[in-house]
Specification:
Layout lengths: L13 E4 L5 H12 L3 E6 L3 H12 L4 E6 L5 H14 L5 E4 L14 H28 L4 E5 L3 H4 L5 H21 L5 E7 L2 E2 L1 H4 L3 H8 L8 E2 H12 L10 E4 L6
Parallel strand pairs: 1-2, 1-4, 2-3, 4-5, 5-6, 6-9, 7-8
């Protein structure tokens, strides 16, 4: 079982996580289920893939439900979410984790790439919050966590569009914190640095070493590092924290 912090108030709390099929999103779902939470995840996969993922999450504890929609398909997402909340109950936690990256020099950026990156990384998060905003008024102790990136803070060559989309999430986070605080809805953002995932494992060792030299702690982060902070921000242990941007980067951007 994945090692995770203990937040008993997450038990039975219904939390939606986008981008849950791998990497950070998958570990977040595992950790939430280990707390006894009810995890709802969206997927574009087949019915079999969705069921396998649901069973995998439930093996950690808690309950899990899979919804079949692409985060960029607002109409389908609205239909699925309305049906779920009507049948199961209001969602009181949201983790906007879905994201794509296509590194490219600005002179080579294509319009369709810009659309895809902004739609997945930023627009989907805005629309998830919009679709669930009325639902949040029926729930208790609501918390939104947006998974941004340290690149959204510091920028990076050949990642202009990705950085812009992740920086946009920070503006969304702070604006929602101000707009929804009167309703006791909190919103915070996490900015991961270099986190080891199935994508980074394939990197050349020399490339990894070059990244390591810029990290004061001298090591890469784990998906669990991000998941633990996510659980904290979703729990009432962080009940007086909103509008914050927290880095999980080993000191990369100080």
């Amino acid at each position: 079982m994945t090692t995770t912090a203990i937040f008993p108030d997450l038990k039975n709390k219904i939390i939606l996580v986008t981008g849950a099929s791998r990497g950070i999103g998958k570990t977040i779902c595992e950790s939430l289920c280990a707390q006894g939470a009810t995890v709802v995840f969206s997927t574009r996969g087949t019915s079999e893939e969705k069921e396998n993922l649901r069973q995998h999450f439930e093996s950690f504890g808690g309950k899990s439900y899979g919804l079949s929609f692409d985060v960029t398909d607002t109409a389908k997402a609205q239909e699925q979410l309305e049906q779920f909340t009507k049948e199961v109950g209001p969602i009181s936690g949201l983790v906007n984790n879905a994201g794509v990256a296509r590194d490219q020099l600005i002179m080579r950026v294509k319009s369709n790439d810009v659309d895809d990156i902004l739609n997945v990384n930023l627009k989907s998060a805005i629309m998830m919050c919009s679709l669930l905003s009325r639902n949040f008024l029926k729930a208790k102790e609501v918390s939104i966590v947006n998974i941004s990136s340290v690149v959204g803070l510091m920028g990076n060559a050949a990642q202009t569009v990705y950085a812009a989309s992740k920086a946009g999430l920070l503006g969304l986070t702070k604006s929602l914190a101000k707009e929804l605080s009167s309703r006791q809805v909190r919103c915070n953002a996490i900015c991961p640095g270099f986190i080891e995932t199935d994508m980074t494992v394939a990197l050349d060792e020399k490339v990894k070493l070059s990244y390591l030299t810029g990290i004061p702690l001298g090591k890469f982060g784990k998906t669990q590092d991000v998941a633990n902070l996510t659980c904290f921000l979703l729990s009432m242990s962080s009940s007086y924290i909103t509008g914050e941007v927290i880095k999980v980067d080993g000191g990369l951007y100080i």
